[in-house]
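INTERNAL AUDIT FORM
Audit reference: QA-55
Scope: verify that the stored structure record matches its stored sequence.
Auditor: D.O.
Record contents follow.
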Amino acid sequence: MKHPVIRIAAVYFLLTILPQTLNAQPFHYPAARKVDQKDTYFGTTIDDPYRWLEDDRSEETAAWVTEENKVTEAYLSSIPFREEVRKRMTSLWNFAKSSVPFKGGKQYFVYTNDGLQNQFVLKRLPAFDKPGIPFLDPNTMSSDGTINVNAAVPSKDGSLLAYSIARAGSDWNEIYVKSVFTGTQMKDTIRWVKFSSISWRDKGFYYSRYPEPSESDKLKGKNAGHQIYYHFVGTPQSKDKLIYQERPFPLRNFNASVTDDSRYLIIYGSEGTSGNSLIVRDLQNPKKGIVKLVRDFQNDYEVIDNDSSWLLVRTNKNASRYRLVWINADDPAIQWKELIPEQEDVLQEATVGNNQIIVRYMHDAYSVLKVYSKAGKFLYDIPLPTIGTVDQLSASRKDANLFYSLSSFTMPSTIYRYDLKERKQSVFFQPQLAFNAGDYETKQVFYTSKDGTKIPMFIVHKKGLVLDGNNPVLLFGYGGFNVSKSPEFKIERLVFLEKGGIFAQPCIRGGGEYGEAWHEAGTKLKKQNVFDDFIAAGEYLVKEKYTAPRKIGIGGRSNGGLLVGACMLQRPDLFGVALPTVGVLDMLRYHKFTIGWAWKGDYGSSEDSTQFHYLLNYSPLHNIREGVDYPATLVTTGDHDDRVVPAHSFKFTATLQEKYKGDQPVMIRVDVNSGHASTTALGSSKPVAKQIEEQSDIFTFLMKNLGMSW
């Protein structure tokens, strides 16, 4: 008979030590075939052994994805509180939501969601204070909610509505037309639409499209040859009239807009994600032909309104933080007239209502609303009930009703109606959800980045938080393409906050929080500033005893996925969890797929010698090293992502799994029948059911690997 002490030791080993030992073993990932693919850039040879994963339609890639998803699912299923996270997230998600109303003719339209509907439903309102009548429901268009309405635009008289839909999260759109008063679906069907507006004139509308791609290029082929067409309702697409293209420049995109008085067609041309040309055509006098008011692509121009031949334009020409100017549509040689000069705050948006100009400014990354006369005289501020983000403005020239949405990190979008004549404000829609925002606080701090630049950061947590240097943190960022990271309500983050987590969002360079200069400071050969700003945010949180190294999870989407990928490799000692979502991770080949070529203005290109070496120094795919203890990593993407193609995530994951020999999970979650899942004020192109599943898994992974419990 064994000695009691030996028996106790054996039991302890079986119950405690052995499971820990087993858990500490590296995970067994699917084998990924390596090929002898080498590319030479300016004398430097680069291996690309997983090039075959760029073919996301092949059987071999599909098999690899299936096996990777099995590994990830098995790991997530082993986490005891996964189901509890999903249940709580579902409960939090289940509240009624609304957009701001927008006008079509004499009536209004509004998007609503009763809580767990996969997609928002468009309703018609006879008047803004009358109950809505369901008019367009994308939830009935598919069995799984993977068809979403991208845009719905009523005709000038409100009798017709053109709307675009996307399938499975793709950027490809189809446009259809519906009679507003009878509800009749017209026969019009327009395909191969992408990155397009819909702008009505008479009984038709302008839109933008590409030539029909080959079957193999639908989701990954380079988008080239953008054209503007005019469609007359009731006719087939083959009869649409080509309005504008620039054949010598196939990598230019074009969008069309008609002024409110239907006089001018405005054409915006672009070669990237910032800067545009400005072209106009007098539709009342077509013999004049087109007038190129701005030929280059150095600055941004947006036509807000017009007064006869004078166009009211928002621009950052000679104004990093934007201004409003008058430009004469008939003659580019006529001197511009400045209406509202550049100010300390960034002029983000302007619209016209009640013959007044409503301007949305951004002050230290939160919103401010001001009203000006048409002569440019400041009239008054519209008081906002709380510090937050205005992400929807809706007004029309002769209507006194201004509608806007206001949200914060802990408050979903509340819709307000402001009477521009009476200067009175009321609540149009107030969401109700099972979350006590009063238990939480949001503060804004300023910290110092590596080069001495002051960076603002929002920090959200429960009131009474103890700064003991041991709190779990989710640090979220973007840092690119002039995109500002203002207070933003995200349901999934509430679960993390409820369990004692801290959410932190720095406004790093590359964004637009302080105008074009702030954006440019994080582009091309200055891109490292973005990563330095983000890393400095993590160091600040440690220094101020919010948390400790390895207690920080980092997250970001798209360009933010690049941010996460670069920072987890540059500072693996600082971060405990990395969550790169639909990330740009191969900086040498990103421009070869779909619309990637348009991002060169921010990133530069491996086709340039200097830029190649700079990109190589931070490209996540090319900077994974052996023998480094990287953070626990969950890469997420969609198999129909035709903006940042999933090859980025596939190749990065395969390389990380090959080279990393530690005991942290390094996994990928590939959502099937899902795309880039762009988020807007109306939610996401991804169905709500899929959003809940994905976010539950992401936050389960995050909380588990930050040592949190349920």
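Auditor finding: record pair retrieved intact. The chain has a mean pLDDT of 94.
Action required: none
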